[in-house]
């Protein structure tokens, strides 16, 4: 909750770390399919469900609020910002497409592997590029706005809600996804 820009930015950066982790998992499953092995479709489905209920519904609107503030307060730092809305809309569309692919497969419809691989890879690439742009450019501009003394967002619309996977409580529907993430993290620390 809140309208403190520095806190919001810290949350946005933490979200990116979590999304990066999920994109790695997604890429791993897409690679399996590409190599002709079986993929864990349930895992892919859970990842994409998470993407629609948190990044699309909470993370991106939070960024939109912060960027809108920047545009009002610091037009001098707002060059090229309009592309963000396009990116967020495209990402939601690509995510929905992939989610529908997996829906069809789980419902027993035959779908060519290369369609899923292509949709998954496109999604991974697009979201990675987008986050990278934000981290090395847009978030830095927000840092500058905060540094110069603009610390609170005036707009009162608040889209905040807890992260159902990485938040204080894991929602039951995401229990399996949470376990997969833990296993991946454990394996990487071995
Ligand atoms: Fe974004
Ligand atoms: Fe972002």
Features:
190 residues; mainly alpha; Four Helix Bundle (Hemerythrin (Met), subunit A); 6 helices; 72% helix; 0% strand; elongated; binds fe (ii) ion
Mind explaining what this structure looks like?
With 190 residues, the chain is mainly alpha-helical. The protein has a single domain, classed as nmb1532 protein domain like (Four Helix Bundle (Hemerythrin (Met), subunit A), Up-down Bundle). It is 72% helix and 0% strand. The protein has 6 helices and no strands. It has helices at residues 5-34, 41-53, 55-73, 82-106, 113-147, 175-188. Helix 1 crosses helix 3 (55-73). The longest helix has 35 residues, at 113-147. The radius of gyration is 18 Å and the shape is elongated. The N and C termini lie far apart (36 Å). One fe (ii) ion binds at residues 12, 16, 59, 63, 131, 134.
């Amino acid at each position: 909750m809140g309208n403190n820009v520095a806190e919001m930015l810290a949350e946005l950066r933490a979200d990116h770390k979590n999304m990066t982790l999920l994109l790695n998992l997604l890429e791993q499953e897409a690679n399996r399919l590409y190599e002709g092995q079986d993929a864990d479709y349930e895992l892919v489905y859970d990842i994409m469900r998470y993407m629609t209920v948190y990044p699309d519904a909470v993370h991106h609107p939070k960024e939109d609020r912060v960027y809108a503030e920047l545009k009002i307060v610091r037009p001098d730092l707002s060059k090229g910002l309009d592309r963000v809305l396009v990116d967020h809309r495209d990402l939601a569309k690509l995510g929905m497409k992939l989610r529908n692919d997996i829906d069809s497969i789980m419902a027993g419809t035959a779908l060519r592997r290369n369609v899923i691989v292509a949709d998954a890879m496109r999604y991974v690439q697009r979201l990675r590029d987008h986050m990278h742009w934000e981290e090395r450019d847009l978030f830095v501009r927000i840092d500058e706005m905060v540094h110069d003394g603009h610390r609170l967002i005036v707009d009162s619309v608040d889209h905040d809600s807890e992260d159902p996977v990485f938040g204080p409580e894991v929602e039951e529907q995401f229990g399996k996804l949470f376990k997969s993430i833990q296993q991946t993290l454990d394996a990487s620390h071995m």
